[in-house]
Amino acid sequence: MFKHISIAAAAATAITAMPASAAPRIALASDIFVEQARDSGRVLQPARLLRPGDRVVTIMTWKRSGAGPDATGGFTVTNPLPRTLQFQGSADGAEEVSIDGGKSWGRLGQLRTAGHAATPEDVTHVRWRIVTPEPEGRIAYSAIVR
């Protein structure tokens, strides 16, 4: 029997500006998909209920609003991962991860915990630094349901 996990339990995503003097207004939307194998290859289906072992892909779309110099400033998107998900990686590989609840950050291969290299199971938060002046963009990452 499979344990089903509600999508409503997905974590909140935070946006912070960098630097504070150039704080852009950002709208963020997040969609969660389940990756499924088909004869024609792998496809993404909107996620409704998740089962342990499901591979999920989260696609976050960001869009700047407003005008002027503040509308092109950099910002950071931080996503706390629910304990029910094990981080796998992002589409661009430019993410930083935290294994201590967001207190410290680094690349997964560089962080250590309890005397060993941190693994995807240790990731508690993921963040991306957005430095492009583009008006909108996407961030995608995958995880496995525990």
Written account of the structure:
The chain is mostly beta strands. 0% of the residues lie in helices and 52% in strands. The strands form 4 sheets. It has a 5-stranded antiparallel beta sheet with strand order 4-3-6-13-8, with no helix packed on it. A 4-stranded antiparallel beta sheet has the order 2-7-12-9, with no helix packed on it. Strands 1-5 form a two-stranded antiparallel sheet. It starts with a strand and ends with a strand.
TL;DR of this structure?
With 146 residues, the protein is mainly β. The protein has no helices and 13 strands.
Labels describing this entry:
146 residues; mainly beta; five-stranded antiparallel beta sheet; four-stranded antiparallel beta sheet; 13 strands; disordered N terminus
How is the topology of this model organized?
Elements: E1 5-6, E2 14-18, E3 25-38, E4 41-46, E5 49-50, E6 55-65, E7 74-80, E8 85-90, E9 96-98, E10 112-113, E11 116-117, E12 125-130, E13 136-145
Q: What structural class do the secondary elements suggest?
A: mainly beta
Please give the radius of gyration in angstroms. 16 Å
**Topology as H/E string?**
EEEEEEEEEEEEE
> Gap between N and C termini, in Å?
15 Å
Rough shape?
globular
SS summary, helix count: 0
* Spatial ordering of strands, largest sheet: 4-3-6-13-8
Strand runs, count: 13
